[in-house]
Write a structure and sequence with these properties.
The longest helix is centred in the middle third of the chain and has 18 residues. By secondary structure, the protein is an alpha+beta fold. It is elongated. The protein folds into two domains: 192 residues, 3-Layer(aba) Sandwich (Rossmann fold); 106 residues, RNA polymerase II/Efflux pump adaptor protein, barrel-sandwich hybrid domain (OB fold (Dihydrolipoamide Acetyltransferase, E2P)). A six-stranded mixed sheet has the order 4-5-6-1-7-8, with helices on both faces. Helix content is 28%, strand content 30%.
């Protein structure tokens, strides 16, 4: 599963529609498995697509919605019935096969749309922000369900979203787009820990911008000397982009900052602290430690990072 991630208007859905054959590219090629399908019409591309809007046929039952693509391909009724029941079982909706779309919740309708796309056994599954219309709890449940189904079926999938957590949670690889271009494509852990560009570092997750001096391939930060990621400035002043979870908060040792504010976020908390030089840094720590801190309390901030990206001022 590859997830295309980026802000609104960056070209994610356009890229998906070009792959599906719904839009024509101005230049370049579309290849699947080494085969050029640029000129192949959409209905011949062997792709399944799930849209943000569920797009179920309101006059058809759940079973008939799932079987629709099979009917277009000329499969007999017995085959359609068998396959639709298999897919509904896969998405956990076997008991709803005789219901209509208006009798289902949003999450259930999206599962039916997923089952319909998979029923025709596409070479590639395309998901265009399929969870954005759902509430937060249902989104988390359904994204895990989609990932489970995708792994069970083994279909190559391209998933478009603007939700970073969603992308990092389900993807084998994440492609970050900006203004119609891929800035970086990598496994989620690599993308997060080793961003290739300033845009990726600032768009994916939270990053502090901490003033630093660079020399000999290293940056001096919070009392530590750390190596630089590729793409960093090679000499002189810059700003290191540092994740909050890479900043350690300690009540012991020589203080170098004071607590400005504390934000409780359940299993962890974010502590905003002002360094002695006036810079404000956000650190992520356990909620148990955060409860012992008060506004204005002296703390020591230290860096725990293998390498950092340093950008020009």
């Amino acid at each position: 599963m590859v997830v295309l991630l980026g802000p609104s208007g960056c070209g994610k859905t356009t890229a998906l529609r070009i792959l599906a054959g719904l839009d024509r590219a101005d230049e370049g090629r579309v290849e699947v498995g080494g085969e050029d399908i640029t000129r192949v019409p959409a209905n011949k591309r062997d792709m399944g697509m799930v849209f943000q809007a569920y797009s179920l046929f309101p006059h058809m039952t759940v079973r008939d919605n799932v079987a629709f693509g099979l009917r277009l391909r000329g499969h007999d009724r017995g085959k359609r019935l068998e396959r639709s029941r298999e897919m509904l079982e896969l998405v956990g909706l076997s008991q709803f096969e005789d219901r209509f779309a208006h009798q289902l919740s949003g999450g259930q309708q999206q599962r039916v749309a997923l089952a319909r796309a998979l029923a025709v056994e596409p070479a590639v599954l395309l998901l265009d922000e399929p969870l954005s219309a759902l509430d937060a709890k249902v989104r988390v449940q359904l994204r895990e369900e989609i990932r489970r189904v995708q792994l069970d079926v083994g279909t190559t999938t391209l998933f478009v979203t603007h939700d970073q957590e969603e992308a990092l949670a389900v993807a084998d690889r994440v492609g970050v787009m900006n203004s119609g271009r891929l800035e970086q494509i990598a496994p989620p852990t690599e993308l997060y820990a080793r961003p290739a560009t300033r845009f990726v570092a600032e768009f994916v997750g939270l990053s502090n911008r901490v003033r630093t001096e660079v020399s000999s391939g290293h940056a001096d930060l919070l009392g530590s000397r750390v190596p630089l990621l590729a793409g960093s400035v090679d000499q002189g002043a810059g700003h290191a982009l540092v994740r909050p979870e890479a900043v350690q908060v300690s009540e012991a040792g020589q203080p170098n900052a004071r607590v400005v504010s504390i934000h409780f976020l359940g299993p962890f908390s974010r502590v905003q602290a002002r360094l002695d030089d006036g810079q404000v840094v956000v650190a992520q720590t356990t909620s148990s430690l955060a409860t012992r801190l008060a506004q204005g309390a002296p703390v020591r901030l230290e860096l725990d990072a293998a390498a950092v990206l340093v950008v020009a001022d």
